[in-house]
Amino acid sequence: MARLLSRALAVALLLAAALPQAAAARTVLFIGNSFTFGANSPVQRYRPDRVTDLNGEGIGGVPALFKTFADEAGLDWQVSLETSPGKELAWHLQNRRALIDRPWDAVVLQGYSTLDPARPGDPTRHVAAARDLAALFRARNPAVIVDLVATWSRADLTYRPGARWSGQPIVAMADELAAVTDRAVAEGGGLNAAIAVGSAWNRAIRDGLADPDPYDGVAFGQVSLWSWDQYHASAEGYYLEALMTFGTLTGVDPHRLDGRERAADDLGLDPRVATRLRAIASDELRARGRLG
């Protein structure tokens, strides 16, 4: 009897070893402001049950969209966020360090829309704070991935007079922010990759999906990526932001979500628009070498 039990145990151990082992869940922290939590859109309160809001404000936001995409792709990510409206990256380090200073597998950093509220377009404070945060997280986990978001052109700072980007093409602000972010990543300092959200917005405009000027109305067959204030994003704009974040961080082509993606329907997006947004994100990610 003992011999039979021993043999049965050996067979069970061999079978267990042959089974695929579930990968451990990866953790990601999103740090940002209203551009991360989805202000002025249903994205802000989208599925807060899927993420952990470290501030306890019941926000889902872009992090909840990322979590949805990850689940749909069969990836196990534990998603947390720490956000506050209108804040620079330095504010989070100074005021929320006790909440965020812990080991993470990945961190997504999104700063103020103009880089510096007092000196629009000046990257000095923005890049320095991103590197300080990266150093904080690397002290906890040397293998942490820290990505920096490059946001979109603000229509209110382009079409209205007296602003930093007034009178320039609508793509100019996003191109400038992308260049700053790419340079910061290339120079090191603990930053792994740029999440080129603004570049994807520009591609959506060039491809004819997104209307370039919300002040003269939205053309038939197009969508506005901006919200009613021409500053924050619409649900479509945040959806594209989340797709770019998902593709950059995971290396998974957003096209893989076709036929299984449900967040767009939850948000009331036109299915044809959602499909095109996934294609645009895929094209931009591939152009930037983020996909194989």
Tally the helices. 11
Tell me what portion of residues adopts beta-strand conformation.
5-15%
In terms of structural class, how would the helical and strand content be classed?
Answer: alpha/beta
What integer value in Å does the Rg equal? 21 Å
For the largest beta-sheet, the strand count, sense and barrel status come to:
6 strands, parallel
**Number of DSSP-assigned strands:** 6
How helix-rich are the residues, as a percent range?
40-55%
Distance between the termini: 55 Å
| N to C succession of SSEs | HEHEHEHHEHEHEHHHH
User: Overall pLDDT, averaged?
Assistant: 92
- Shape designation: globular
**Could you name the ranges where pLDDT drops below 50 across 5 or more consecutive residues?**
1-23
Strand order of the main beta sheet, please?
2-3-1-4-5-6
Kindly summarize this structure in a few lines:
The chain has 292 residues and is α/β, with parallel strands linked by helices.
Provide the descriptors you would attach to this structure in a database record.
292 residues, alpha/beta, six-stranded parallel beta sheet, 11 helices, 10% strand, disordered N terminus
Could you explain how this protein is built, in words?
With 292 residues, this protein is of the alpha/beta class. Helices cover 42% and strands 10% of the residues. A six-stranded parallel sheet has the order 2-3-1-4-5-6, with helices on both faces. Helix 3 crosses helix 9 and helix 9 (235-250) runs parallel beside helix 11.
